[in-house]
Amino acid sequence: MRRRTTVLLGALLALATLLPPLNVVRIIATVGEDNLSNDYIVWVSPISRMLLGTYPWGSIFRDAFFPTGHFMLFPFLLHAAVAWLAHWNVFVEMVLGVGLFLVKLVLLHRLLAPRSGGLWAWALWPVLSALVFSTTQMSTFTFGDSSLQM
Fold this sequence. Notes:
Blueprint: H1 2-31, H2 41-52, H3 60-63, H4 73-86, H5 90-112, H6 118-132, H7 138-141, H8 144-149
Helix pairs in contact: 1-5, 1-6, 2-4, 5-6
């Protein structure tokens, strides 16, 4: 009897953990648009030169600085990879952003869960999932540029 209860509780916790990210993916698939906004203008010139094979790789660190002073090397390279592999399909960027948020969820759980494990560590999964994949942050998830940065 105890084994069944444990399995049932584990299944409920797994379902409660998966519902928020699945909801975000559902919203992205039904509402998201495959168009670049004017926020991408900073990336267009260097990425187009990368795709043409004329990019001077010695300037990558300079080009990865956003005009506001933020260093965006990782998002810059992700944009370039999506442009090369998926013709800069924004849906691919949004799904990649959800994947990065899943990594964020795992890292937060590893940071906050008790090392001893137990019920509290398992119960933390749905709580953190609901916070990380909150629908109040849909503007982040439905915009490829911000989902890769956050």
